[in-house]
Amino acid sequence: MAYYGSMRFDLNLKQLKVFYYVAKHLSFTKAAEDLFVTQPAVTMQVDALERHYGTRFFTRDKRGLGLTEAGSILFTYAERIMLLAFEADQSLLTLKTHPHGVLRLGTTKTWARVLMPAYILGFQERYPDISIHLDDGSSEEMALSVLYGRNDVAIVGRVPYDDRLEVVPFPGHEVDELVLAVHPKSPLAEKTTVVLADIQSVPLILRERGSGIRHVVMAAVEEQAVSLSVLLEAGSVPFIKDLVAKGAGVSILTRISVEDEVRAGDLCAISFAGEGLWVHVDTVVPREGYRSFAVRAFLQYLAEHGAEAPPVDIARQRVGE
């Protein structure tokens, strides 16, 4: 017994399918051929359906099969039901081979600008029927957005994660180097490498709480037992770079985010000595629950082509940056 909302019905859909083919051909033999079953099996299903409703659906005489009034009524509905069943079957098969729908993707503001366009363009070239809604914020915010259903997938700098999230390194960009961004005329600009102790007394413009960069910096501060002179905290990387370019202080940012300014001579990027400072880039999805075809296709695309994404400069040109 099946239910539809508050209504219930006892119509056996398997028997209805058999009835449909018999009524369509007005032949038990042709129905059996279409259904790849024996003729006795077809007869048994039709007999069971007729017994259930206590009426005959077919007339049988020397001219062959015909439809009774009840049979004609049922065939009208059976045609519509079979058409809907066929459409549903084709839609699901098409969805499996040609995913479509919406992918809600969260990432940081920096990677939304300089890293993700290349991957998004490549993915949409392969799956043109999947539209992507891009959301940006701090790494912690984006990870939580996946946990609570605002986004399907997040690409973030590594922060402490909730156990309910599944995390894998982002292919092709598993880590991103952190550098000290300084004004070209700063005495620090003459150094080839620096350590955190070198900037203890220098005004530091620090990334906001929840940032993957901040998490790496604060862990290094604790490990190296140094103190920093934080001028202010900000979430906007362009704002931070502008302040550093005006000589207001220094900042610790990803190398990829300052490439243009370094090339233009507005900033200098200095590596940290030793093993350096690195932010790990992760792909984050819910550990449990349903994953749409769009999500699975995107994760598969990253696994197969993550390291082969077009160069960042190409992506910038194509998005008009």
Give me the secondary-structure category.
alpha/beta
Radius of gyration, in Å, reads 32 Å
Going by CATH, the homologous superfamily of the largest domain would be Periplasmic binding protein-like II
**Please, how many domains?**
3
Distance between the termini: 59 Å
Low-confidence stretches: 310-321
Percent strand equals: 15-25%
Q: What level of helicity do the residues show?
A: 40-55%
Overall pLDDT: 88
Main β-sheet, in a few words?
Answer: 11 strands, mixed
CATH topology of the largest domain: D-Maltodextrin-Binding Protein, domain 2
| Principal-axis shape | rod-shaped
Determine the number of helices (DSSP H or I, runs of at least 4 residues). 12
Assigned CATH architecture of the largest domain: 3-Layer(aba) Sandwich
Task: Give a structural overview.
- 45% of the residues lie in helices and 24% in strands.
- It is an alpha/beta fold.
- It folds into 3 domains: 2-97, Arc Repressor Mutant, subunit A, CATH 1.10.10.10; 101-173 and 280-318, D-Maltodextrin-Binding Protein, domain 2 (3-Layer(aba) Sandwich), CATH 3.40.190.10; 176-279, 3-Layer(aba) Sandwich (D-Maltodextrin-Binding Protein, domain 2).
- The strands form 3 sheets. Strands 5, 6, 7, 8, 9, 10, 11, 12, 13, 14 and 15 form an 11-stranded mixed beta sheet that branches. The protein has a two-stranded antiparallel sheet with strand order 1-2.
- The chain is rod-shaped, with a radius of gyration of 32 Å.
- 33% of the residues are buried.
